[in-house]
Amino acid sequence: MDAGLTVYTDQGIMQLDSNMKTATPAFRQTYTGPYTNDGNTTFIGTWYQFTITVPSDVKYLFFSSPVDRSIGLMKKSGTSHTFRTTTQGAIEVYGFKDAPPQASNNRSGLQIFDATGALVFDSDNNFMKVANVFAVPTTGVKVETWPVPGRNYAVGLGVYPKSWRGASQNGAPWGVLMSYCVRVGPTSGGGGQTGIASRPWGSAGDSPPANTPEASPPTVMVVDVTGL
Amino acid sequence: MPIGLQTFDANGVLMLDATHRIGKIITSFDSGTANSTRTIPELQGAGTPFYFTTTDADYFSEYIAYPDITITGTTVSWSFVDYQVPITPFGQAPRRNVQISIGVF
């Protein structure tokens, strides 16, 4: 490290130093509705769609939920983000943007500067605290319990890669849109890949569509949002 | 008693609790739409590396080619998964530029 502070913890080492890129809170919304449902459950179960407006400078988006649910991005147009989720009810949405900390005027606390004199940490500033990171599986769901009981966490994927899979029902071809999704609930978070939309694909007797390649699984990031 | 560092704001609110494991983002950059690599010297000995991809592009990704990303030592590599779109408009799925954030945990 060029400059900064190294903290030795029970689990290893943490560095607050010039190699740290700070993301700061930039968006918070409690979404309670409305939800829409197109009535189609073939191969995918029930999904509810909702749209939120997210400031354009938000780079990292995370979700928390008091009930277990899956969430996947369906469409983004400018600042309009349309998601699908498996149950209705309140969702907490947190956004972070790349930004350095702002120097506080308080005469107590801790500030850390890099080798050029730029502020990299200010104890009065909240920032994106990465509490866990792991890869999403290509099949099924992987969730991990929140790291520290009593604290609040949110989970995000960043991107939600999709692929089509062929299927058939009563001799008619269908396409099933598979999507990587967040899985989040009151005590754990993670992600996986699941069918998020489907539609008939041609006429009876036609072949189902060929599967399109799957992108590699995205990384789940869990952040500590206590106090935000 | 755990060891580490806790910082509080002026109101006494716990802002940083480094008695628990905390990851950090080291750098972010655009992938572009070509397969490529980048060396991140700060990864050397810094912990378990991870990547996190985001995109600020408009998004309806039924047919988008994303890059596969790997981290080996201090080298980040990305390679797009190309394929042909099976229905109209057909053709090769467009590659999507993503922002790759590299961190350690």
Topology:
The complex is a heterodimer of chains A (228) and B (105).
Chain A lengths: L3 E6 L2 E6 L5 E9 L16 E6 L6 E5 L4 E9 L2 E6 L5 E8 L12 E3 L5 E4 L6 E7 L5 E5 L7 E4 L5 E8 L2 E13 L3 E13 L18 E6 L4
Antiparallel strand pairs in A: 1-2, 3-8, 4-7, 5-8, 6-7, 6-15, 9-10, 11-17, 12-16, 13-17, 14-15, 15-16
Chain B lengths: L5 E3 L5 E4 L6 E7 L5 E4 L9 E6 L12 E6 L2 E6 L18 E6 L1
Antiparallel strand pairs in B: 1-2, 3-8, 4-7, 5-8, 6-7
In words, what does this structure look like?
The complex is a heterodimer of chains A (228) and B (105). Chain A is built from no helices and 17 strands. Chain A has 228 residues and is mostly beta strands. In chain A, strands 4, 6, 7, 12, 14, 15 and 16 form a seven-stranded antiparallel β-sheet that branches. In chain A, strands 3-8-5 form a three-stranded antiparallel β-sheet, with no helix packed on it. Chain A has a three-stranded antiparallel β-sheet with strand order 11-17-13, with no helix packed on it. In chain A, strand 15 and strand 16 (188-200) form a beta hairpin. Chain A starts with a strand and ends with a strand. The model of chain A has no long low-confidence stretch (mean pLDDT 87). Chain B is built from no helices and eight strands. In chain B, strand 1 (6-8) and strand 2 form a beta hairpin. The mean pLDDT of chain B is 82. Classes of the chains: A mainly beta (228), B mainly beta (105). At the A-B interface, strand 1, strand 2, strand 6, strand 11 and strand 17 of A face strand 2, strand 3, strand 5 and strand 8 of B.
